[in-house]
Amino acid sequence: MLPLGADFAPLNPHIFQPPPGPKRSPNTEMVTATYNLPADKDDDRAAIDHWLASLDPHYPEADRKQLAAACEALLACRAGQRLETGEQAVRHALSTADILVKLRMDQVTVSAALLNGCLGLTGTTQDKLAARFGPGVARMVADLSRIDKIANVASVIAAKDQDEHEENLRRLLLGIAEDVRVVLVVLAERLHLMRAIKDLEASRRSKIALDTQRVYAPLANRLGVWQVKWELEDLSLRYLEPEEYLRIAKLLDGRRAQRQDYIAGVIALLKAKFAEAGIKAEISGRPKHIFSIWKKMQRKAVDIDEIFDLRAVRIMVEDLASCYAALGIVHGTWQHIPKEFDDYIATPKGNLYRSLHTAVIGPEGKALEVQIRTHEMHRHAELGVAAHWSYKENKQQDAELQRRLVWMRNWLELKSEGEDGGDFVERFKQEFEPVHIYVLTPQSKVIELPVGATPLDFAFAIHSEVGLRCRGARVDGRIVPLNQGLQSGQRVEILTQKNATPSRDWLSHHQGYLKTARARNRVRQWFAQQDHDLHAAQGRVQLERELARLGIVEKPNLEPLAPRFNFANADDVYAAIGRGDLAVGVVARQVGEPRTEAPKPEVRVKAPTTHKACGRSEVVVEGVDDLLTHMAHCCKPVPSDPIVGFITRGRGVTVHRADCANLRALPAAERERLIEVRWAGSIPDAAYPVDIQILAVDRKGLLRDVSSVITNEDIDVIGVATHSDRDRDTATMRFTVEVRDADQLEHIRLKIAQLPGVLEVRRGN
C-alpha cells in the first residue's frame, strides 16, 4: 500500500528492509530484504519461472499472461548481461518488478519495469512494444529509457548551485514522465540498486548514495511513498555515514519490528480509551527511522536521549472540539513531558499548518510523541501549502508543481485502495499540460525553461553574453535551427563566435527565435545600447554647434541639468538630443543658467475623444492634416493621457504628456512652439512604452513576483532597473513595458500593488 501521511504508515515490517550486510549485534536495525526470487542468482530462466509462480493472487489471469510475455521479452533482450553491481540484468529487472508488486502496482507498471532497458536491443522499438504490450507500456518504457540516459551521466556542479540543480533534476524526472507510474518504476529501481551496491568501490557507492539522498528520496517524499522514502534515506546514511548509522542503530532500545509492536499496542489502548469516551478517531503510528533520527540530532545539536519522537502516533478526529478532548485523554493516560507541547491549532505555523503536538512517557516508561488533528487539517498538511515535503525541504512554493503532485498522490492513493484509476491518469494528462521543460547543459546542469523555448532561449538562460554571441546549437549531438523547440531531457550545446552580434530577426514573433521575455529584453537592450551610443555622439555634435551659433563659450556640463529633463545622466541627455526627443536649443539656452522652476505651460488640453486619425497617425493635430508626429521618450504618453504637442525642427511634432517635466522646464520663448493635439481613434496592435516605478520592502523573490504579474498579463518588458537600499531594507524598481492604453497600464499597476511587501506603484515621470 501507499499510505499518505508524513512519517506515518500502517505497520508492515516485512516489505521494505535494508539490504544484507555484515553481522551486527542483535539490537541493530539491519534486516534482510526479501524478494520472491530463488536463491540461485545466475539462472535467469529459473528466476523468471519462480517469480511468475509466486505472483500475488490479486493479479488476474490476463495480467499474468502479459507479465509472462514481458518476462520472455526481457529474457530475449538481456539474458546474460551483468550490471555494474555484478548482478544479472534479468534478476535486477525482476527485483524491481517485485518491489512494484509489493506496492500493488498494476500490470502496465510492472511490465514497463520488466522491459526497461530493452529499447534498441535485438531490434526492439517503441512501435513493436506498442503492438505487443499496448501504447501505455511502450510510452513508459520510452520515458524510462530517456531518464536512464540522464541519470547515468555524472555532473560536476558548483556548491552554490547544488540545491537549485538538484531541485531542477527532480522536476526533470517529473517532467519527462507523462505518467506518474514512470516515477514509481524509477524509485523502485533505485531502491533495489541501493540494496545491491554494498560490494561496489567505496567512492562509487558514496556517489550513488549521495544522489539517492538528495534527489530520489525527496522525490519519494513528495509523492507520499513513505516506505520507499524511509529505506532510501536509511540506506543512503548507511553508506555515507556508516559509523553514525551503526551508532544510532545500537542506541535504539529494540529492533524495528519490536518498536512497531510497541506502537501497535499503543494504538490498541488509545482506540479503547476513545471508544469509551465516544470519540471517533483514526489512529496511525510509526517508529522513527534512523535517517530521520540522525537528521533531527544534527538539526537540534542533541543526542538521541533528547529525541522524544522515536515512537509516534497520529490521531485524526472529526472536529476541533474532539482534538482537545483527545488531548485530554492522552494526558490523562500518560505523564506529559514538560516543554514538549505545541498548539499549532491556536497559533498555526507560517504555512498555515495546524495540529496539536505533545510528548508523553508512554508504556514501559518510553517517550512517545502524539499528534492530533482533524481530517481537514490533515488534508491541508498533506496536499495544501503546508504539504510535508515543502516545509521539510524548505522549498519555495510553485503552484503548478504543487497541483501536479496533488494529482499524482491522489492517483497513488486510489491504487493503494485497490481502485483501477486508469481514467484518472488520462484526465491527469489532459489537465496538466506541462508549462516548463528541463534541458541539460553539456556539464549535465539542469536548466528550467518555458514550454516552447528554443536553443536561443537556452543560451540566454546560461548567460547573456552566451546568448548575444550565439551562432548555432547542437541538441543531443546534432546541429539544429536556433528557433527549433526544445523538449525535456535534451542536452543542448551552444556554439558561439567571439565577435558575433544579435540579429534583429531574433525579435520577430513570427520567426519564433525567442520564447522567454528575459531573452527578448536582453536583445532589445543590446540594440537600444547600440542606438544610444550613436545618438549620444550625434547629440553631442548638435549641442556643440548650437552653443557656437548662440555664442555661448562655456563648456557644457549636462550632469546637473539631466534631472531637469528627467534623465539620469549627461549621456542620456545627449542621446535624447540625437534622437530628436529633446530640442537642442532648449538645452543650449540652459547651459550655465541657474535652476529655476518654470511655470506650468498654459495649454488647453481636450479630453480624449474618438476621432479619425490622419493616415496611420495615433494623434490628431488641431487644424493640420497629415503632419508627422512621434511620442516623446521622456514622458512616454499612452492613449487616454492628456497630451501636448511640441513643434520640433525637422522632425514634426513630438507628443508629450501634459505634465511632462521637460515642458515645465521650457523657457518662455520656447513655449510658443506648443500646440494642441488629441488622440485619434485606436490603431490595431499598437503598443506604447511606459515606465512603472515600484517601491517595496526588499525581499527574496520580489523581482520574480513582479515579473510574473507582468508576464501573466501578456505585457512585454523592454527595460528593467532595480536598486536595493540596505539601510532602509527597501527596493526600488523601474520597469519599462509596452501597453495598449492608460486603462491597461492602470490594470497592471493595481495588480502589482497587491503583491506582498509592495509599498507604492506609480507611473514614471
3D architecture notes:
With 765 residues, the chain is α+β, with helices and mostly antiparallel strands. It folds into five domains: 44-240, Orthogonal Bundle (Hypothetical protein af1432); 256-397, 2-Layer Sandwich (Beta Polymerase, domain 2), CATH 3.30.460; 436-515, Beta-grasp domain (Ubiquitin-like (UB roll), Roll); 556-679, no CATH class; 688-763, Alpha-Beta Plaits (2-Layer Sandwich). The chain contains 26 helices and 20 strands. The strands form six sheets. A five-stranded mixed beta sheet has the order 1-2-5-4-3. It has a four-stranded mixed beta sheet with strand order 12-14-13-15, with no helix packed on it. Strand 13 and strand 14 (653-657) form a beta hairpin. The longest helix has 34 residues, at 517-550. Mean pLDDT is 78; it is low at 1-31, 154-160, 383-397, 416-421 and 594-616.
